Every structure is written in C-alpha cells, then in structure tokens.
Amino acid sequence: MTVRGLRRRICWLFVNHLLPQGRCFAARRNLLNWAGYPVGAGTRIAGAMHVTTELSIGSNCWIGRNFTCHGNGSVTIGDRCDIAPDVMAVTGSHRLGGHSRRAGEGYNLSITVGSGCWLGVRCTLLGGVTVGDGSVVAAGSLVKDSVDENVMVGGTPARLLRRLLDED
Predict the structure, then answer these.
(1) Active-site residue among 17, 50, 70, 94?
(2) What is the pTM of this model?
(3) Which residues of the chain have pLDDT under 50?
(4) 94 catalytic, yes or no?
C-alpha cells in the first residue's frame, strides 16, 4: 500500500467513524486535505462521506451527510455550494454490451459543480455532467445532462423548471 493510500484509509476512518456527526468541521476538512482531497477554507462537512473518486471541494461549502462519489473519475465542487444529505455523484458507467453481458466496457467521466450551487437531498449526478454556477438541482433529481448557469432543474431525468435571477 502506498503512503497516499494509507493516509486515505486513516482519513476515512476518522471522518466516517470516529468524529462526531454534525461537528468537528475543521478536523474533517484538515484530514481530507492531508489525505490529498483538496477542501477550501470554511467548508463544513456534516458527516460521513463515501468517496472512490478524486474529489476537490471549494471554499465555504456545506456538504451534507452521506455525500457519495463513485467511480474512478473526478468530482470538482466550486465555492459556496450547498449539498444536502445523500447526494450521489457517479463518474463511472459501462458501454452497452452483448446479450451475454449487457454491462460492457467500463468508462469514467468527470463531474463539475459550479460555484454557488445548491444540490437538493438525494439527487444524483451522472458522469460528464457540469452544473453551471448559481444553479439548483431539486431533491430526488437525476442529472444526466449538463445544467446551464442560474437555472433550477428537477425530475428524473432532470429538466429545466425555471430560470433564476442573478441577484445577491
């Protein structure tokens, strides 16, 4: 096992099992940075995470419990994002195979969440998706196509619900 792999295992032990949920935000952030997952200043991670991808989180974000990133791709989250509990980012998939095994050759695509976004509870982002700055993904949505800036999307699959004003 590499030093990086050992650091990551220690990190996940503390983040997911030893630190109290809903507290110890700085400790979680520091452990993730130490393990090679860049996390910006002021970001608060509320609880357990399950990550098998490369992950980068910007500054002043809120990451709800059970944030999950599956696959061998990368997930990049901008600054000032709010991610509700049980959000999933899945970077990997398979090409369609023959009738003897429909899950054919595997592949991975990156996921990018722009700054200022809000991802509702239990939404899922699939590989290759970019969520534009200032956008909202409604609870329970499945995002399979990229999302423009300053819009609200929802549903399965996610579709445009409305355009949002660019106000502060």
Answers:
(1) 94
(2) 0.94
(3) none
(4) yes
